[in-house]
Amino acid sequence: MAAQMNGCDDVGTGEVDRRQLQTAEHPSAASPEEGGVPAFLWFPDAPSKPARLLPPLALAYIGDAVFEVAVRQHVMARPNLRPHHLHVQATKYVSAKAQAQLLSLLEPQLTEEEKDVVRRGRNAKSGTIPKNADVMEYRHATAFECLVGYLYYTGAHERLRSLIDEGFEDLESTRQSSEPQR
Asked: What are the tens digits of pLDDT across the range 143-175?
């Protein structure tokens, strides 16, 4: 009983109850008494640790998926819904080059905590050699995905939406200004 009250499992393995960690990290989360599902996650399974303790590459892993959904929703808001066109438009946002550029456009607006998450993501050693980007672009893209994952897991969804929305606007205006005039 005492182990359960301290956030550990009843077997004594020292594993932390994910629901308790998640609810302690974000005040709007549902408590275990309310069914144990964190109110701010899309699905009921919380991570095994609080977001600030997750490895940067794990945050980038979930951040990649969350950002992919944001990009798909963004391109679905456009008039041309042919699958090939959707794919071509989406790749303009999800490439390492685009994500690195998004991060550089957003960095001045980041809080110190967010900058620390970005730094951890940028410095993480993935062990993967990028095939369509240089190493620095790849590291900055990983840092961006790490930030997205962190904001998702901490329940800062309004902040996440705001940064992504502003990033899309900045990226599109940068692209338009760099296109040759006809």
From this structure: 999 999 999 999 999 999 999 999 999 988 887
What 3-state DSSP class applies to 143? helix
Please list, in sequence order, all residues whose beta carbon lies within 8 angstroms of the beta carbon of residue 38, skipping any fewer than 6 positions away: 19, 22, 23, 26, 29, 30, 44, 46, 155
Q: Annotated catalytic sites, by residue? A: 64
The CATH number of the domain holding residue 152 is 1.10.1520.10
Q: Using CA atoms, how far apart are residues 75 and 32, in angstroms rounded to an integer?
A: 37
pLDDT for residue 131: 82
Helix axes 96-106, 83-94, angle to 10 degrees: 50
Whether residue 138 is found in the same domain as residue 170: yes
DSSP string, 10-69: TT-S--B-HHHHHHHH-TTSPPGGGTS--TTSSSS---SS-GGGS-HHHHHHHHHHHHHH
Distance CA 77, CA 89 (A): 11
Q: Whole domain around residue 80: which residue ranges? A: 50-178
